[in-house]
């Protein structure tokens, strides 16, 4: 499963790195980005929580 953040949709609220800091961080533009290519083993629930917590649906995990 690969996490990603749509930079055009992201509003930089910071929810995803607070929910899943092992998968997301904030860049210099104040927007979130994925810091891993694959969701770490055992953290699939955190990835899904980040997806569901994003207020603008900018996060996907495929």
TrEMBL record:
PROSITE patterns: 4FE4S_FER_2 (PS51379). It holds the Pfam family Fer4_13. It comes from the Bacteria. GO terms for molecular function: electron transfer activity; iron ion binding; iron-sulfur cluster binding. Keywords: Electron transport, Iron, Iron-sulfur, Metal-binding, Transport. Gene3D superfamilies: 3.30.70.20. Residues 1-29 form the 4Fe-4S ferredoxin-type domain. Ferredoxins are iron-sulfur proteins that transfer electrons in a wide variety of metabolic reactions. PANTHER family: FERREDOXIN (PTHR36923:SF3). This is Ferredoxin. It comes from Proteiniclasticum ruminis. The lineage of its organism: Bacteria, Bacillati, Bacillota, Clostridia, Eubacteriales.
């Amino acid at each position: 499963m690969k996490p990603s953040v749509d930079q055009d949709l992201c509003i930089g609220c910071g929810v995803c790195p607070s929910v899943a800091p092992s998968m997301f961080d904030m860049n210099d533009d104040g927007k979130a980005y994925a810091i891993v290519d694959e969701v770490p083993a055992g953290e699939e629930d955190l990835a899904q929580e980040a997806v569901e917590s994003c207020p603008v649906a900018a996060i996907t995990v495929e």
